[in-house]
Amino acid sequence: GDAREKLEHFWKYMVYPEFQDEIRQFTDLKTLAERMGNRRIVTKQYQSTLFYDPQKDKVPVWNQCSFIEKKRDEEGNLISVIFATQTVNEEKIRQLTETRQLKQSNASLMDLLAQEKQYTSITGALSNVYYSLYYIDLDNHTFQEIVSHGRMHHLLGEKGDARAALKGMTEELVRPSFQKAMYEFTDIDTLDKRLFDHQILSMDYEAISGGWTQCTFIPVVKDETGHTRSVICTQRWITAEKEVEIQNSIIRALAVPYENIYIINGETGYIRSYRMGDYMTKRYGSSFSEGRYDENVRVYTANEVWKEDRKLFDPIADVASVEQLMK
Predict the structure, then answer these.
(1) The whole model's pTM is what?
(2) Which residues contact 286 (CB under 8 A, 6 or more apart)?
(3) Which letter, b or e, does each residue of 150-167 get, where b requires 16 or more Cβ atoms within 10 Å of its Cβ?
(4) Closest by alpha carbon to 45, among 12, 6, 98, 93?
(5) DSSP string, 64-101
(6) pLDDT digits (tens, 9 = 90+) for 111-170
(7) Average pLDDT over residues 263-284
């Protein structure tokens, strides 16, 4: 019979509609020789309608059709071929299952990589603020290191008993005058009760090595009754902040008896006003609220001090003189 008619009947009535266009092109005899080239066989898979019954919810089976070289002329031109079909249902289903599983595995892996990248970014950002971060499970009293540096890392390790770790930290790293308060603050047996109505608990202490540190407990998991099941314990240096706090406390104390108070930056030689009395404000406005220390002293002595008394200001005429006087 006519091969073209038979092949047309094949793809129209024996191939599932979704694959008909692909098989129509595959069985086009006009382009077959070019598509085969020097190959002895070409194949195409499709779903067949031969065992497909939509009324019985049966799934179309997978088949494979092939053109197999039978004869070529002396110049290698294709003369005749064999057209064959075979069922590959089980093999195809296995391939599809493996592909689907691989895609799912790849998707899971990408999710894990994204989570790890996010986790790394978060911990990296936190490590710029805190020199140690520990996860503490209050139910089984264990800890897990998240971020830690230097002596804290070597002292506590990566995981273990939280009570022993916090006790060791207090003994080894906290100045003795703060240890009693630190033992009470890091008592994980009372931590749930203390955190019940709080989102965070913090304590400032002085380290044995010098400088100020802040220890903080942050709830991670709370149950339906509001009890804390786990926390993050953080440590960060606050020496600069503490120095400012102490400085401000001193200034506030001085502010009671003194009318005009200025803060001098010894490195730059500039000053800023902490408080200016009514007289200075009315007489000089904002010109004395900031500026160079030596220039402000010169203006003040020229306008406010008797000529014969101005030499009394020589020891504090500039920042260098003030620093020398303070030694």
Answers:
(1) 0.44
(2) none
(3) ebbeeebeeeeebbebbe
(4) 93
(5) EEEEEEEEE-TT--EEEEEEEEEE-HHHHHHHHHHHHH
(6) 544 554 554 454 555 556 678 889 999 999 999 988 887 778 888 888 999 999 999 999
(7) 78
